[in-house]
Amino acid sequence: MHPFQYGFLMGNLIRFILRFRGFILFLILESIAVLLLSYNSYYQRTQMFGALQVVQSYCYEVAKNATSYLALRDDNEMLLRENAKLRNQLDHYQSCDNANSAVQVSSGAGYLFSYMPAKVVNSTTNRQNNYLVLNAGEWQNVSPEMGVVADNGVVGIILNTSAHYATVMSLLNRDFRISARIRRTGYLGTLMWDGLNYREAILSEVPQHVQVEVGDTVETSGYSAMFPEGIVVGTITSYETRKGNFHEIRVKLEVDFKKLRYVNVIKFTHSEELKKLEQQQ
């Protein structure tokens, strides 16, 4: 340290001591009195020890909470992997039930859909055609036309990939279209976004004779290789008849895209087989 800086710091320290000398002297004398009292009295000594234990426990708890907070990132990644694993097993069980067969669950074989966790590293919500960027790409076997979901609903479709990243056409995109149905009635429609409210989408092409109720759940129909059936999209908030024969239904989306951080990329294991079959038509 430079001599000038050392002298400046010492001068400030002396001025501080002189300014608060009364308070500092009081603390010194008070500490001496407490020590003498605790030394000569067993009761006071035990009380002081108990107080120190409380303070120590509180400091330990604060330190533990701080450490736990710093470890949240690792915990979140572990939970994402566990969630993807459970999704895979659930889909496998459902496939077995649908086929009326008892096939043993394995780590990968037999899954109709498989799920891989990813983190959202960039996204938009204020445009007419919104996109997301995920930290998973070709090295993680992510490819275009794979579906993307969050824990509580549909997110979008993989559009392009690089080695380590992928862009997603968000549900909040005017070009986004998927087949969806009203869970209670099973009637199908086309889900799209009208570019107005980032928390709402439109379910169209539902026939006028279908009974629609506010609060009905809208979910994926399963009529594509991108999303399995039964994934929640949102709930109906209002509806009206357009073009004479069809309802136009407003759906409140389950996913809040402004808070979205973690997703699962869906791979349909029979996608190549299905594409080849469709190309023969």
Walk me through what this model shows.
The chain is of the alpha+beta class and 281 residues long. It folds into 2 domains: 3-70, no CATH class; 109-279, Rod shape-determining protein MreC, domain 1 (Thrombin, subunit H), CATH 2.40.10.340. 36% of the residues lie in helices and 31% in strands. The chain has 5 helices and 12 strands. The strands form 2 sheets. It has a 6-stranded antiparallel barrel with strand order 1-2-5-4-3-12. Strands 6-7-8-11-10-9 form a 6-stranded antiparallel beta barrel. Helix 2 packs across helix 3 (42-70). The longest helix has 29 residues, at 42-70. The N and C termini lie far apart (83 Å). 24% of the residues are buried. The model is unreliable at 98-110 (pLDDT under 50).
Question: Main traits of this protein?
Answer:
281 residues; alpha+beta; Thrombin, subunit H; 2 domains; six-stranded antiparallel β-barrel; six-stranded antiparallel beta barrel; 5 helices; 36% helix
